[in-house]
Design goal:
This protein has two domains: about 80 residues, no CATH class; about 80 residues, Actin, Chain A, domain 4 (Alpha-Beta Complex). The strands form two sheets. Strands 1, 2, 3, 4, 5 and 6 form a six-stranded antiparallel sheet that branches. With about 170 residues, the protein is α+β, with helices and mostly antiparallel strands.
Length: about 170
Amino acid sequence: MSTLMLIFIYSNILGQTEVKCEEGVMKEHGEDMDAYYTQTNTCTYGNILIKDETMEDADGCKFTCHTVSYNLIETGLEVKLEDLFNNKSELLSKINSGLANDFQNLASNNIDCFEGLTYSSATFVSIELSISENGFIFTTQTRVPGYCEGIAGQVSITISLKEIDKYL
């Protein structure tokens, strides 16, 4: 068993109530024109382990080259985002309320990018989760045109650790 896994298990046994993140080492794969790089970053909170694997190639993979997976430390199983939570419909309603507010704020500051767009409620399938010391960050895409993605491609809401605990 790896040292990293032992740290996660040990933290869980003690009832981890803080966020612990570890930035992985950039690894090179392939050679010359076929070369690409991967890096896996992990964050844990309680029984939750989030792995975010980023892949960069010669083109830089600006917006789509990462994969996020959600795991339960206790079982080691990968699960769907929604399986991390209790009271799923209440939480999803709270998330959508915050995402809609962020969408409106972005739309009012980037009128050309949001012309003809309205917020469409997100599902757990279309939401991505990350964790920081500030809380759980739920993010989804805005569907703006490609030339606007850099400034307005995503909306997010942060739910504090204290507030999210009732859904775990």
